[in-house]
């Protein structure tokens, strides 16, 4: 099965890849594609357990990723064979598109080695910033002692930052019992531990990689902290207000109510019978989270109305699953 990526996706050959092939082969297949509205969420989620390496391999001659079935036959597909073949047909027909970062890796590389190397600078700089604190300055390598000392220091800093924000066991029991999408549980957990990845947090760790301001607002004087990332940004606040109006009957939600739901698990009064309010907030969190990072990494426009509609579809899907499980 041959996939004409260059004509379908308009990805220029002279554009260097941003991530390595080895790294992308370890990603879930669902993280490399953009789904059309016709494909049900349940079908989309079925690809979460299939890795890219189960469907693609690196061709050393072409210096790019190609589908396993295109040169080695369908017998080379061991895991998720029928799902993968179906996905490749969708890509061929244009029903599903590959995200730009992955599509570029499926195109032959430029012969200009300087152009190739340029594609890794940002990613390598980020990795170097993470590794540098672990290196023993006397030996210029990561020794067991330097690794242990660096991590002990990080643990001390982490404990110092959370001593005044400990939560009760009942709070955590409530959190783990919430019926929310699995993909948002870790980001929410990190938010509650003040380890949520936002521009301000990343800039503090690796100053040379990104600025601390909000890319959506485009104002260098507006820092992107956790509050701004989630609901204070005007483009995201629109989504919360629409959801609060539809599901909770509140026309102008106070920012404090949104903050209480996210940080303290204090939700509005229950009005719907088939879905819990924590599930609604979790779906909203997930929709904003995914849309934000697609805007950052793939330049996908952040359209508040489209994201709001996607969240309502996710809520409807979660409600249907709840009804089916209760039958």
From TrEMBL:
Pfam families (alphabetical):
zf-RVT
- What InterPro entries does the record point to? RVT-Znf (IPR026960)
Reverse transcriptase zinc-binding domain mapped to chain residues = 166-240
Quote the protein name from its UniProt record: Reverse transcriptase zinc-binding domain-containing protein
Supply the source organism for this entry: Rhizopus delemar
Q: What is the lineage of its organism?
A: Eukaryota, Fungi, Fungi incertae sedis, Mucoromycota, Mucoromycotina
């Amino acid at each position: 099965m041959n996939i004409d990526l260059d004509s379908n996706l308009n990805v220029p050959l002279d554009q260097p890849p941003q991530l390595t092939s080895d790294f992308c082969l370890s990603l879930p297949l669902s993280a490399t594609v953009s789904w059309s509205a016709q494909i049900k969420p349940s079908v989309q989620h079925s690809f979460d357990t299939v890795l890219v390496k189960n469907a693609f391999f690196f061709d050393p001659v072409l210096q790019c990723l190609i589908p396993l079935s295109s040169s080695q036959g369908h017998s080379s597909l061991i895991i998720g064979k029928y799902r993968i073949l179906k996905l490749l047909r969708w890509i061929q027909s244009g029903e599903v598109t590959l995200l730009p970062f992955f599509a570029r890796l499926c195109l032959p590389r430029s012969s200009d080695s300087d152009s190739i190397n340029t594609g890794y600078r940002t990613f390598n700089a980020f990795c170097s910033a993470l590794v540098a604190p672990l290196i023993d300055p006397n030996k210029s390598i990561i020794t067991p002692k330097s690794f242990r000392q660096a991590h002990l220091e990080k643990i001390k800093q982490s404990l110092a930052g959370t001593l005044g924000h400990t939560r009760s066991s009942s709070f955590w029991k409530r959190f783990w019992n919430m019926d929310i999408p699995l993909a948002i549980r870790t980001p929410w957990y990190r938010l509650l531990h003040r380890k949520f990845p936002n521009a301000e947090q990343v800039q503090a760790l690796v100053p040379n990689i990104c600025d601390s301001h909000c890319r959506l607002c485009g104002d260098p004087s507006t820092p992107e902290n956790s509050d701004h990332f989630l609901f204070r940004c005007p483009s995201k606040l629109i989504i919360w207000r629409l959801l609060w109006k539809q599901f909770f009957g509140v026309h102008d939600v106070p920012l404090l109510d949104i903050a209480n739901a996210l940080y303290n698990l204090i939700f509005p009064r229950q009005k719907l019978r088939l879905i819990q309010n924590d599930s609604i907030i979790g779906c909203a969190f997930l929709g904003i989270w995914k849309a934000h990072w697609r805007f950052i990494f793939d330049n996908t426009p952040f359209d508040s109305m489209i994201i709001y509609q996607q969240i309502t579809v996710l809520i409807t899907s979660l409600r249907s699953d709840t009804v089916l499980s209760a039958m």
